[in-house]
Amino acid sequence: QEWDLSLADLANRLASPAGTPGLVWHDGQGIRLAPPAPLVEDLDQLPLPAFDLIDLRQFREAAFSRHPTATTISSRGCRQHCSFCVFPRTIYSHEFRAQSPKRVLEEALFLRDRHGVRGLRYDDDSFETDRERALAIADLFSIRRLGIPWIVQCRPENLDPELCRALARGGCEMVLCGVESASDESLRRMEKNTTVAKITEGIRNARRAGLRVLNCFMLGFHWETEEDVRATVSFACRLHADLAQFSTPVPLPGTPYY
Q1: What DSSP string describes 142-155?
Q2: Which pLDDT value is given to residue 174?
Q3: C-alpha angle 29/32/37, rounded to 5°?
């Protein structure tokens, strides 16, 4: 469940918190669950995060070319149903909600001008879910001359040539892509709703537009053989991305994979 409204409500009723929507607590007898909290429908109404409470100079990632950097999100909810992914099932839901392009620009300028940020990462599940919105954000960043590189996460099959060129013009430096596997059968079993051919084409489009690419893979689903794992590693090399990240699938509670 989303916590924004629940935390604000809890802060106002600490003397008797039991009525807070979305709260889980132990009352001495057992675990109690309040009714779910409502989703935040209008993300533009949320205040800018309190970035002043942390020292952004302490956070570094190999994907960034400049520092200091900041990570933020501009949307919530993922319409996909990947069997291993915990976030839409336990926190944000599958209902996609997004900040307006104007609000995204406001936060980017705030981070640049007030906090000296020289690189931004958008940790949205899929930044391009609303393609027209993604194009509008890239255009705004270009028109207002944001002047700092930014990174997004995208489903590679949605990276068409026009979108990739627009992102590059807007200052996007890199796209992070969830490739996961070199096997269409594995992709089907993990409910990725894509194919190896579509993934390959999208990453090719990104590279042609001058975007750097970080591909993410997972090795060791319970149905995979050693041959499957070797094929995925070979596929990662053939894609010629700038960076590749490998992890193992973890059966997290709340997911079908669990």
Answers
A1: HHTT--S-EEEEE-
A2: 96
A3: 165
